[in-house]
Amino acid sequence: MSYNEEQMREIFYQEMTEIFERIDSCILTLERTPGDVETIKNLFREVHSLKGSSGVFGLREIADLTHHAEDLLDRIRDGELNPGEEIFSALLSCFDRLKEMMSASKRNENLSAFNNADIIKLLCDFKENFSEDPQEKNAVARIEDMKPGECSFHVSITGADQFYLTGIEPTTLILNCRDISTGLFSIFTRVSRIPALEDIEPELCYLEFNFNFVSTSAIKTINEIFEFAIEVSSVKITPNSTPATAPTPQASQPAQAATNDTNDFVRLKKEKLDQLMNLVGELMTMKNLFVHLSNKLEDVLPENDMTKDFKEGSRNLTHLTARLQENVMNARMVPVGTVFTKYTRLIRDIAKKLNKKIDLIIEGDETELDKTVSEAIGDPVMHLIRNSIDHGIETPKVRKERGKSETGALLLKASYEGNNVKLIIRDDGNGIDLERVKNKAISLGIVTKEHAATLSNKDIIDFIFHSGFSTASEITDVSGRGVGMDVVRNNIRKLNGAIFVETKAGQGTEFKIILPLSLAVIEALLIGANEEIYALPQEAITEIVRVEKKDVVNLNHRPSIQLRGEVIPILRLNEVVTLKESRDENQTNPVIIVQIDNIKVGILVDTLYWREQIMIKPLGGFLTDVRLFTGACIMGNGSVVLVLEPKELYHALPQTQL
Amino acid sequence: MSFLTYANRTFKFKEKLSIYKVSEIKKSLLKHYNSEANKSDKFYLDLSEVESIDTSVFQLFMALKKTVETGHGHLEIKKSCQAFDTLLNLLGRCEL
Predict the structure, then answer these.
(1) What is the pLDDT of residue A131?
(2) Distance between CA A323 and CA A330 in Å, rounded?
(3) In this structure, is the dihedral angle defined by the CA atoms of residues A110, A111, A114 and A115, taken in order, positive or negative?
(4) In the predicted model, what is the mean pLDDT of residues A345-364?
(5) If you average pLDDT over residues B65-74, what whole number do you get?
(6) CB of A257 within 8 Å of any CB in chain B?
(7) Of the ranges A99-103, A467-471, B55-59, which one carries the lowest mean pLDDT score?
(8) Between A82, A171, A199, which is nearest B90 by CB?
(9) Measured between beta carbons, which residues in chain B are less than 8 angstroms from residue A166?
(10) How far off is chain A from B8, nearest CA to CA, in Å?
């Protein structure tokens, strides 16, 4: 295979992975809003691309099976079938098989070994709509059929429990929409929330509705119909298109238009962006050198036109480097939503497997994160989600007994917090049983019974991050092997992040993950100990104070200082990094207060230099295992400075004696 | 209860069925269903004398269907009425 063919193959499989992700996302959206015209069209388009591309690459077996899925979608699009849970499950099974086939093809395996008769039977067995109503035959309003001035609307109503108690009869809403519909009208009523007779609260409305219709009415009129429903339920009114005008070639060819849009994007391998970022790092080092020389110049030469130009050039170089760095870093940013979308399918499948009902709420999916960070965070977050569903959220029966809604809520939220991204994974389930955690820690010998009695709730929660710790009474294939939470925290720490847990018995658990926006370039404070310079990431620093020798007291065999009434343990940097006893020549020393996982530690240093943006390079050779340093950076004068890992400084605390 | 009678595994309804009666209907349906020893057979709904029906009663029928199916039985509509057919049509369904 030539180099170009190999490249094409690589691009093809990458594209197919993305198509599968988008297909999963479309199906899961349709599960919630079955009549969503735009999503059906998008799904159809993606499946069509999958079939076409597979055919071009000679993957006939994949193209054939995709053809059956496309047929089914065609029937949904044409209104022959009302999409329901069984259809979505069949489609997901089909695309799971196609993913397996695609992976096999990537490994150059023979695709004819796949027997797809079961999937094809599943896809073909769906009977036509039971409705005789010709309007419903066209369940999905076709935008292409719309007349000028018409607009298609999609309305979904969920959480309508209070409808009857507030005097709302859903049929009135349906009839009102039907009255203003000028053409096609379709409705899909979901009945899956209705419990068995013995469990039903007859005055609550369990029904959910999705309807599509075409109307010349303004959105204001539609809103008025649902005015009262909006107050007591979740009503989403989505105009599916702008009002139709006379048909234009663009309007009649949406697929073509979408293809043209993609011309604005360039597919780039991540390695190329990494190389670019490395080059920016090198450039920053050079920039620092010029700034350094520019400062030195004042000492050795009297000011003249040449020195002025040199300084001006250095300033411009600094400015341009900063802009270049910002742009390259922006290019590496991806929305967290791309990671969240993958979890949607996982949550659906696990919930089904465990017979649990889960309402997934995603917030802030547009929040952006460095691609490397976003990739690395995937597994830890997935583990937390598995734990939440398996051990956190209760079964519908238990939840009902506890007076909770039968459907558990799982929140995935991303937001910015300073130079960090904050991820929240919160469930409204059991909460962590702290008594069980404590007893388990005692039985595992992590802590003595006497010591355990003195621990705070936060200290007890911390045991869940201990290697091999699990309170699960049985090991499941979803989670509960007890090897996870320590790995979760370690992986987050590797990303210079931190994880915090809050839990309330019977009310749920919240995991908060704080991650840096980017790993490559950081702001650091240069500090000195024993005439050596070290870099300390600025992010960890909360404040800097000066302390006199007499202010350092020995508490619990640790040197500590008092800061606004708070006792803060301190360590002497020169003792930690050189293992030499402090000479303690200075009467006053700067102490840098850093915060690690909610714990404050003071670092006593000899000298404070300046702040600088640095590009961290990994340590090679024997230094790889020195955990005290996260890497090294090159200064403007060419010297190499080691970058301290704040979390490891904290671990160095017990060895430090006054 | 005048609007619901039960005989020969058939729940027969009449008059106007609405939210105002759902609690009573639920109790009555449960009572009759639980009194039936053989759960794993067909049960029927006779709606021929129903004058009007709303969605709260429709979801009660769906709940009954779920209970019957849990007991390995089957719920069928023996006789429908225009009000119920119209409601099903409005909800985009052709059967329970």
Answers:
(1) 38
(2) 10
(3) negative
(4) 87
(5) 92
(6) no
(7) A467-471
(8) A171
(9) none
(10) 20
